[in-house]
Amino acid sequence: MPVTMSEDRFEELVGDALDLIPGELSDAIDNVVVLIEARNDEEPQLLGLYHGIALTERDFSHYGGALPDTITIYRDAILEMCHTEEEVVEEVAITVIHEIAHYFGIDDDRLHQLGWG
């Protein structure tokens, strides 16, 4: 049975997950917006999505004035896969860190090797 949770509580969990990022890394995150949506229309089971140009791939001579990168966390997909609030807390943290890693240029294969897949 999926977990029921208010949008405000879920947003709080995403904020808590962002607070887990070490200061030296969070200081390096620039021009990124974190969004929360119910689900991804194209891939309903997707938990999170990074959309942008990873730091390792940026050509800074052409990046100025670019729209912010986005990290979207999909609330309903996460709530549906979890059975307790504790599982939601853990999955939100894993998903946020996973998507931030993409911002830093870490691909899915490496994330799986590190246990964040």
Automatic annotation (TrEMBL):
Q: In which domain of life is the source organism classified?
A: Bacteria
Q: What is this protein called?
A: Metallopeptidase family protein
- What species does this protein belong to? Nocardia acididurans
User: Lineage, please?
Assistant: Bacteria, Bacillati, Actinomycetota, Actinomycetes, Mycobacteriales
